[in-house]
Write a structure and sequence with these properties.
With about 300 residues, the protein is of the alpha+beta class. It has two domains: about 1-50, Orthogonal Bundle (Helicase, Ruva Protein, domain 3); about 60-195 and about 265-305, Tetrahydropterin Synthase, Chain A (2-Layer Sandwich), CATH 3.30.479.20. The protein is about 50% helix and about 20% strand. The protein has twelve helices and eleven strands. Strands 5-2-1-7 form a four-stranded antiparallel sheet. A three-stranded antiparallel sheet has the order 6-8-11, with helices on one face. It has a two-stranded antiparallel sheet with strand order 3-4. Helix 1 (about 5-15) crosses helix 3. The two termini are about 35 Å apart. Residues about 50-55 and about 290-305 have low confidence and may be disordered.
């Protein structure tokens, strides 16, 4: 029998919005497996689709840099939020993002690049020694287009190109670069807010789609619906799912009466040429990193302060 902690119950509640007792029961039924517990709750109709990871579980900064048709985003973690406000640390993250523009999105390659007489890895080590706190380059990604722009947006910015959420979006087009940049920034802001999983349904991981189908099917099977009806309900449910998680199908945050795909079409008039969104990357600081055990009180305090 798995040891179900209060922290596990709270994490499941945060992901699903289900009640505490239901969350505890779900974790008990699934041996403490968080993702299986999410599905268990959904099959019983006790939870909506799992909220996407976005809870800040580590400190530091996201750095974004764009040069013409190429853009990069990096995450550099530190132990405390104080470091993110330190000029030395901010300079380090900016330097790493600039290096990544040439080196690409491979972390090991970035760490090995020389800046002056020392490597990026050495520069991080020197900054650790000066500030007295551990820090790491966790991840990096790049996007590029042959014609068009890579647009960017940084949320909760502490300095230009530095913040807690960073987004780059690649837009292919032969039209006006200035108009494309302006629209691209709007799309990047949308991605920061709506947190899509993929550009369209075809780009979603087949395992994610299979899981969604399974959850929907089991949920309505438990309600006693006949098989032929379940198939139709599942297909309808998938369409709703795609509208929620696919960038082009989502309601555009600047005008939710139109989809992002419709906004792209409308912008083609201003840009003067077809536009194709070929990729996006969204980094939220600390997503997917577990907090140390025993920080539940801190989480609750943080949540209380956010309301």
């Amino acid at each position: 029998m798995a040891n179900i902690t209060a922290g596990m119950v709270k994490e499941l509640r945060d992901k699903t919005g289900a009640g505490m007792m239901d969350c505890k029961a779900a974790l008990g039924e699934t041996g403490g497996d968080l993702e299986a517990a999410v599905d268990w709750l959904r099959k019983k109709g006790l939870a909506k689709a799992a909220k996407k990871a976005g809870r800040v579980a580590a400190e530091g900064l996201i750095g974004v840099a764009v040069r013409g048709t190429k853009g990069v985003v990096v995450e550099v973690n530190s132990e405390t939020d104080f470091v993110a406000r330190n000029d030395l640390f901010q300079g380090l993250v900016k330097m790493i993002a600039d290096v990544a523009l040439d080196a690409g999105g491979d972390v090991d390659k970035i760490l090995g690049v020389k800046v002056g007489a020392i490597t990026v890895a050495d520069a991080i080590g020197d900054t650790v020694a000066k500030i007295g706190e551990n820090m790491t380059l966790r991840r990096a990604a790049e996007l590029a287009v042959s014609k068009g722009v890579v647009a960017s947006y940084v949320h909760n910015s502490v300095s230009e190109g530095l913040g807690r959420i960073g987004v780059i979006v690649a837009l292919e087009s032969t039209g006006s670069v200035d108009e494309l940049k302006a629209f691209g920034r709007q799309v990047a802001m949308h991605v920061a807010s709506a947190n899509p999983l993929a550009i369209d349904a075809a780009a979603i991981d087949p395992a994610v789609v299979a899981r969604e189908k399974s959850v929907l099917s089991e949920k309505f099977k438990a309600q006693g619906k006949p098989a032929n009806v379940i198939d139709k309900i599942v297909e309808s449910g998938l369409k709703t799912f795609y509208k929620e998680v696919c960038l082009l199908d989502q309601g555009f945050i600047f005008d939710d009466k139109k989809s992002v795909a419709q906004a792209v079409k409308e912008s083609e008039g201003k840009v003067g040429a077809p536009i194709k969104i070929t990729g996006f990357v969204r980094y939220a600081l600390g997503e997917g990193i577990d907090r140390p055990e025993g920080d539940l009180g801190g989480e609750v305090a943080a949540l209380a302060g956010a309301h």
